[in-house]
Design a protein that fits this description.
8 strands; 6 helices; alpha+beta; SH3 type barrels; GMP Synthetase, Chain A, domain 3; 3-stranded mixed β-sheet; 5-stranded antiparallel β-sheet; elongated; 2 domains
């Protein structure tokens, strides 16, 4: 069983109890990234069978600051108790973000009604990058509305999942500020999780006052 699979088994019950879903787990370069999202990722109102709603691209909102902080503490405790990962690593719990990557069938289904950018694999017919509104997604592939013809009919492009090299939701530019709490695990080990929780709260408390509306920390 891979590291990501072991982490999934630990994290899934913690998220379901909080009305959240596990969007992704990645282990790269000593960083364990747990990506969580709200569980209400249904298509826009009026959508049926995975099609975009009549009001255009749907808008999603991810977990807020307090929820992410709570999940971070819960995941950190579970990892400390189970110790599923050998060696040292840094835990990062985050939401998928505005320009979230789309890597699985479920990712695409949740993004129906949103604006996406898709890069086909080399060799795919008409291999130009595709940008537009994701109108449908199923087990086989996706449909992206790229524009409107002169007669008013939508112009669409279908791609099988096997033809996609990379895809992401396309939104406004995103800036990220990261703070490294040196020797944070030592605080948990020597003073307990309550002290660690209080330290995290103090570190993040200035963020909402210094951030733009809708930002997350």
């Amino acid at each position: 069983m891979s590291v990501a699979d072991r982490v999934r088994q630990l994290v899934l019950p913690l998220l379901s109890d909080r009305g959240l879903m596990l969007y992704d787990v990645q282990m790269q370069g000593g960083v364990l990234r747990v990506v969580v999202d709200t569980a209400d990722g249904a298509p826009a109102e009026g959508a049926v069978s995975g099609e975009a709603g009549p009001q255009g691209p749907a808008q999603r909102s991810g977990p807020d600051l307090d929820v992410l902080a709570e999940v971070t503490r819960a995941v950190s405790r579970a990892l400390d108790e189970s110790d599923p990962i050998p060696g040292r690593y840094t835990l990062e719990v985050t939401s998928p973000g505005i320009e979230r990557p789309l890597r699985t069938v479920e990712h695409f289904r949740r993004a129906v009604g949103e604006t996406v950018k898709v890069r086909p694999l080399p060799g795919v017919a008409d291999g130009r990058r595709v940008a537009g509104v994701l109108t449908a997604a199923d087990d086989r592939g996706i449909v992206v509305r790229t524009g409107t013809a002169d007669d008013g009919t939508p112009v669409e492009r279908r791609l099988d999942h096997t033809e996609i090299e990379r895809a992401r939701r396309h939104g406004q530019p995103l800036s990220i500020c990261m703070l490294d709490a040196d020797r944070f695990k030592m605080v948990n080990d020597e003073f307990g999780h309550a002290a660690g929780d209080e330290l995290l709260h103090q570190l993040r408390s200035p963020a909402p006052r210094k951030s733009r509306p809708g930002s997350a920390a």
